[in-house]
Automatic annotation (TrEMBL):
Alphabetized Pfam families for the sequence: Cpn60_TCP1
Region annotated Disordered, chain positions: 528-556
Top-rank lineage group of the source organism: Eukaryota
Family recorded in the similarity comment: Belongs to the TCP-1 chaperonin family.
Keyword set, alphabetical order: ATP-binding, Chaperone, Cytoplasm, Nucleotide-binding
Polar residues bias locations: 532-541
The protein's role, per its UniProt record: Molecular chaperone; assists the folding of proteins upon ATP hydrolysis. Known to play a role, in vitro, in the folding of actin and tubulin.
Keyword Cytoplasm applies: yes
Organism: Lactuca saligna
Cellular localization per UniProt: Cytoplasm
Protein name: T-complex protein 1 subunit gamma
Length: 556
């Protein structure tokens, strides 16, 4: 139910305190309800029509909410949570929305009973501190060099995704890619930059099983002169340039006045000699492959092909950086500054292959590459887009483990343990904060409850049995098998979650709930639309509850 809205003449819209809280809570719950069914391995898929009229089929929380067009400001801030979670840890985008929605839902009773929002927020923040302490207590360290354990962890994290039906494939790809680009910074710290140094190349056609991680890079380019330049070179010497191999034009418009006809020939000869010198400086280092981000003139192509050198031009900056990391070359800005150490010798093979109608250049079999390309094949573009989304999540999880090698139980076991511990702690809290603290403990049960709902089992029986097992502190690893809905030991089933994904989910959800609870006014400076032809200023009007348009707030 939307609150009465006072529309003033200067187009300022205000709502009163408790009513605003209720409107914000209802909007947040509506957003949570949209993606609640996409949590867990037995989740539903959503089919979305994007702005360009294309179709997106996915169960990724962030991908779904990104396409929604929502007017309510509280609902918009909820959608931002999912985006933040995706950028920070890459997984848990649905959980964070469901948990934040539940935190606001349990706060509704206290708002009705005239509790001050600051009291509720204080209790929530204390609950967050205690929840993180529980996470530390039940977490378990992992050896990042144990491939089978790492594979099991990545598999369990993407078990809720669409691609889980293809077995180990995506987990294998993600693990290979992240271990390739990982760099040791010393003191046990690893840097894994999956945005910069891992390129996902999607090529429709073939089977998904043909997908692989290349030990090097590939890009959608062919050599400049296919007939004269070699398309396959073993152990190539690679030079990477960031400058044009063509005659340098003046910065400003230049007029040259020639008196004699011979001067024109001299001018042309100077241009040719300039390009010839550039090529000579490059050829001095006996390269097999020259790649530049800028243009390459016909004359430069002639000199290079004459010397048996293959050339590629107008390559993207990001691709050039990846090639440099893969084959050990250094990108040079001026050919006269070239040194022997700038030449990349780490690549085992340069080859141009035709896939479909396009040519792709491969620089592969590199020694210790620090960049790679993941080649994805599949039946259709929609399938490939979904596989790419799942792969990004899997790579983020693998990166998180490499950075923070700690695990917590999955299948709702962590949330139930946190909930049981907070309920026990609530008895020692004095004063008015005790009740919101206890409500926060109940809110954590939203995740296992939603998992049970999506499995199609009896939710009340399952939740009661789980609460009973956790209340007497039997086993912190008891949770729900998301496929069958059976209560089981998560350690035996190898259903795990990354520690920092879970910690980030709790932090984001509770901090966002606190922020929305502390909003007591929505003041809008947007002009109200006037009916066409009406010129007189509208008088202040008060919309009643019956007139309030709730459909403007949330799409169905």
């Amino acid at each position: 139910m939307q609150a009465p809205v006072l529309v003033l003449n200067d187009s300022l819209t205000r709502e009163s305190g408790t009513k605003v809280h209720n409107a914000n809570i209802q909007a947040s719950k509506a957003v949570a309800d949209i993606i609640r069914t996409t949590l867990g391995p037995r989740s539903m898929l959503k089919m979305l029509l994007d702005a360009t009229g294309g179709i997106v089929v996915t169960n990724d929380g962030n991908a779904i909410l990104r396409e929604l067009d929502i007017a309510h400001p509280a609902a918009k801030s909820m959608i931002e949570l999912s985006r933040t979670q995706d950028e920070e840890v890459g997984d848990g985008t649905t959980s964070v929305i469901v948990l934040a929605g539940e935190m606001l839902h349990v706060a509704e009773d206290f708002i009705e009973k005239k509790y001050h929002p600051t009291v509720i927020c204080r209790a929530y923040n204390k609950a967050l501190e205690d929840a993180l302490a529980v996470l530390d207590k039940i977490s378990m360290s992992i050896d990042v060099n144990n491939r089978s354990m790492m594979l099991g962890l990545v598999k369990s994290c993407i078990g809720t995704k669409f691609t889980s039906q293809f077995g180990d494939l995506i987990a294998d790809l993600a693990l290979d890619a992240t271990t390739t680009v990982g760099v040791d910074l010393g003191q046990g710290v690893r840097e894994v930059d999956i945005k910069k140094y891992i390129k996902v190349e999607k090529i429709p056609g073939g089977q998904l099983e043909d997908s692989k991680v290349l030990k090097g890079v590939m890009f959608n380019k062919d050599v400049v002169v296919p007939g004269k330049m070699k398309r396959k070179i073993i152990n190539p010497r690679v030079i990477l340039l960031d400058c044009p191999l063509e005659y340098k034009k003046g910065e400003n418009q230049t007029n040259a006045e020639l008196v004699r006809e011979e001067d024109w020939a001299v001018l042309l000869k100077m241009e040719e000699e300039y390009i010839m010198n550039l090529c000579a400086q490059i050829l001095k280092f006996k390269p097999d492959l020259v790649i530049t981000e800028k243009g390459l003139s016909d004359l430069a192509c002639h000199y290079l092909s004459k010397a048996g050198v293959s050339a590629i031009r107008r390559l993207r900056k990001t691709d050039n950086n990846r090639i440099a990391k893969a084959c050990g070359a250094v990108i040079v800005n001026r050919p006269d500054e070239l040194q022997e150490s700038d030449v990349g010798t780490g690549a085992g093979l340069f080859e141009v292959k035709k896939i479909g109608d396009e040519f792709f250049a491969y620089i592969v079999d590199c020694q210790d590459p620090k960049a790679c390309t993941v080649l994805l094949r599949g039946a259709s573009k929609d399938l490939l887009n979904e596989v790419e989304r799942n792969l990004q999540d899997a790579m983020s999880v693998a990166r998180n483990i490499l950075k923070h090698p700690k695990l917590v139980p999955g299948g709702g076991a962590t949330e139930l343990t946190v909930s049981a511990t907070l309920k026990q702690n609530s008895s020692s809290i004095e004063g008015i904060e005790k009740w919101p603290y206890e409500a926060a403990a109940v809110a954590f049960e939203a995740i296992p409850r939603t998992l049970a709902q999506n499995c199609g089992v009896n939710v009340i029986r399952t939740m009661t049995a789980l609460q009973g097992k956790h209340a007497n502190g039997e086993n912190a690893w008891t949770g729900i098998d998301g496929n069958t809905g059976v209560i089981a030991d998560m350690k035996e089933l190898k259903i795990w979650d990354a520690y920092n994904v879970k910690a980030q989910t709790f932090k984001t959800a509770i901090e966002a709930a606190c922020m929305l609870l502390r909003i007591d006014d929505i003041v809008s400076g947007i002009k109200k639309r006037q009916a066409p032809g009406s010129t007189q200023p509208s008088k202040p009007t008060i919309e009643q509850e019956g007139d309030a348009d709730t459909e403007q707030m949330i799409p169905e």
